[in-house]
Amino acid sequence: MTISRAEVEHIALLSRLSPSEAELERLTHDLAEILAFVAKLSELDLSEVPPTSHPVALVNVTAPDEVEPSLDNDTALRNAPSRQGPFFRTPKIVDAG
Length: 97
Description:
Elements: H1 5-14, H2 21-41, H3 73-76, E1 83-84, E2 87-88
Antiparallel strand pairs: 1-2
């Protein structure tokens, strides 16, 4: 399977990328190789292989919930760079305009 330069440019546009001319050439070549590899894989007989959601078994490692006393306000704010009363003071990061 091949991919055209126009298709790569369209994918870059959708991805909000602005690759240079050299990058477009390299990406076109690399994506064509990836698609060829996927096409090669699709030739395999996988009728005996059960579907999987992940190539390796995943185990969720969790710890039991244990109730512990929380920090008091002064201890929690001891190393705060700036505080305002019982709260962390942070700079404004969203402009109203």
